[in-house]
Amino acid sequence: MSIEMAELNFLIVGDTKYFLPIKKCLFQINKIYKTASIYIYDWGFHEKEKDELISKNNKVKIFDWRNKIHDSLNNLHNNYDLSINDNNVNVAEFHNARLQKGFRKRVAKFFLKRFPKSSMVKKPIERAIRFEEMLVQKIVCLRDFSNFIGSKKFIFLDADAMLVKPFSEVLTSDYDVAFTMRRPERQSTLIPPKGKCLKDFISSGVVFFGSKTINRNIFLDVWLKEARLYEGRLREQAAASIIISDDDGKIPDYYSIVIKRIKKQQIKLFLLPADIYNYNVGLHDFSNEHMNKMSLLMLKEAKIVHFINDSYRHKNIRELVFKSID
Question: pTM score > 0.90 for this model?
């Protein structure tokens, strides 16, 4: 058994909404890396769900984060500007578009489009910022876990991300933090832009961390600060794009190392292709015959898949993905 396999540590955060994909994720980890330790931050599981997750693997440890999530969501005003302004309206429109169809969505869309300065947009803005704070809480959990795990490497997985193949080549690389980067056609425009960073090119659903606790923590502190300062959408991954982007806004190449000097430390940031280490599976990827064929072809190369926007809940998508990999 290699050192990498013996010391593998996975971190997952989630709640009852993500119980099924997390359950499948644990199955996949056990299948590929049998001796790995798995740590889960509980944002709101039922007790029976936690018991089942632990029963599936005796190396699962669960941290209760429910009160901290509750406190952060009830005190949004401490970290965010909740006023009615152009940036917040834009974030609210983006978030509202992601909701399931319904009366609340239609009403919010009407006022955000027709009367963006009215008091009726306060609730949609607050809902959107609550969603953003949930994303940012991932960084808070990462910082907490970094102290807990000490000088061991670990891998963070979003609740709907899961392993499909070994990735030992990443474990032996030299870095402090390794992010996955979208291919150009999947990069979105950063709204609003920050300095010369115009694209949101990082996909933060899978993040690899090296063994240097000090360097990890320095980066996580900067990442959290930037995420709380940025006023756009999907701010935890937007903040990573802003930090990693060069001063001239240039997007790094795949497999490049970006060195950031922070607090007198040289922080090594490694950029990996998301199509291999964080392949995003969305409903649109299987929307027609051409997209279906292309997606199944690209899935052949994927080592970690990430079911975005609740795509895991669609049985036909799950079956297509795992059939293409087996």
Answer: yes
